Each structure stands twice: as C-alpha cells, then as structure tokens.
Amino acid sequence: MCVVLENHALKVSIHKKGAELFSVFNKKTGLEYMWSGDPAFWSKTSPVLFPIVGALKDGSYSFNDKSYTLSRHGFARDRIFELESKTIDTATFLLESSLETLVLYPFSFSLRIVYQINDYTVTVTYEVVNEGSMPMYFSLGAHPAFKIPLTEGTIYEDYFLEFNSTESAQCWKLSPEGLMMNESYSLLHNTTRLALKKEMFHHDALVFKNMKSDCISMKSSKHNHGVDFFFAGFPYFALWAAKNADFICLEPWCGIADAVHHDKQLVNKEGMQKISRGQKWSRNWSIKSY
Questions:
Q1: What is the rounded average pLDDT for all residues in the chain?
Q2: Which of 58, 137, 209, 242 has the greatest number of beta carbons closer than 10 A?
Q3: CA distances for 252 relative to 13, 100, 136, angstroms
Q4: CB burial class (10 A; 0-12, 13-18, 19+) of residue 41?
Q5: Could you tell me which CATH class the domain 2-289 is placed in?
Q6: Of 272, 192, 282, 190, the residue nearest 232 (C-alpha)
Q7: Contact 249, 241 (CB under 8 A)
C-alpha cells in the first residue's frame, strides 16, 4: 500500500489510499517534514480534496434536478488509487469513476496524481479528464500537513510563515457548519510574515481569496530549516491545524465551501471548475525542504 520515491536528497513515501503523501525525509538535514498522522488529533497527512472542496450546505447539492450527498472535501481521499506507472523519481496514481462514485457524483472522470522528486523538491500534479459526454463540474484542492516543531528544542511559536509578496488579504469567516460567511476580517496587514500560534486554529481554517503570493515558506526564528511551498494557479488558500496539534496545513484550492446562503445548485457553486468532454485540467504544487 506504500510507494517510495528516492534520490540522493530525499526519500518520499505515498499511500495508495488517497494517493496520499505521508513522508518527506531530507537526507541532508536528517529531518522528516510531514505530520505524523497521529489519530489522536488528525489521522491524515496530505489528502486530495475532490470533487468538492470544503462543506456542502446540508451535505448535499443538486444537478439536473437530482439531489446528491457528499461529505466534506469529497470522496477521493478515501479511495484506493491504482499505481499506473512508476520510475525511480516519479509515480502516477489513477482514480476513475465507477458505479459507486456515480451515486455520489454524476460525472465520468479520471483523476491522476503525479509525484516527482527533483533534488530537494517534491512536485505534486493533479490531472482531471472529463471522460463523459456532458460538461463536468468539480473542485480540487490540496491539504498537506507539515510538522511543527521540526527540530528538538523548539516550540510551535518559534515558527512563522513568510509570503513572497506583501499581503493584506482578508480572512473569510466560516460558520459552525464550515460554510462560507459573507464576512471577512483583516489578519494580514501589509506584511510578508505571519507568526504561528496554535490558538489561531481553535475555531476552524483561515481562508483567503486571491492572495498575491504564489509561494509561502514555513520557517523558524531558531534555526535555518523549513519548507518553501509553491502553488501558482490556485485562487483560494487556507491555513489549518487540528486543535493543539503539532502541524500546519498549507492548502491551495481550486474551489471553496458552499456559502451560507447558497442555492445548492452545483453549477452555481463558487470556484467550480468546468471542463468539456475529453478536456484535461491540470494544476500542481511543490515543496522544497531545507
């Protein structure tokens, strides 16, 4: 159930369930950069969010006058992917629509997740193909969790995020049900840095729209180790951690949770991607560890 990619710099491990990245070990630093997946807090490490991102209003949506139910973030993260191909430094995982998925989501699709390592960088590419005859609507997002603290002798509050552009992006509020509210507040004040504190995530994720940055670095004030996280092409971004857990999720999204007053029509859902018959859609993100 585990696939390993390895080069002179990294050893990277991926589960076939969810095609989920669960280990990035840097041979030079001797450090593991991914969250351990401790089920006492959160058992996942880097799930893919597909075919929706976030929660649906009342857990359901309508398409072509028929109602469907989907749990938060969709079903791909809990499915077993086929290992379609593998080399020393690349692995391609495949999930295809089935009678089981069609009950939840009425589109024929193929979803490939491609992992590639190059020196100290891991690149994760998503490829969605509409295998059906009608236009396909979907959202897709990433949810990787990075270990904090990275080194012994440091604590969570010794770490911060650094943006590659000056940010004043508003943070959008979530309802108790995880739906987008029409309210935002200022968390980033013309800055390139956000200090990390566990209490920031006691209520839910911090959700941003249309940030200027396309790279966020996780760094420490006590040492020179961290990660650079690249995510060009994703219009939404979220930060999240389970309450009092030793990690942070850096989440680039193409899609977002339903709004509180959404009409539940899939075609009207904010952030939905639409591709025609046979069309391929692709996005990627990457992490460089040091």
A1: 97
A2: 137
A3: 21, 28, 21
A4: middle
A5: mainly beta
A6: 282
A7: yes
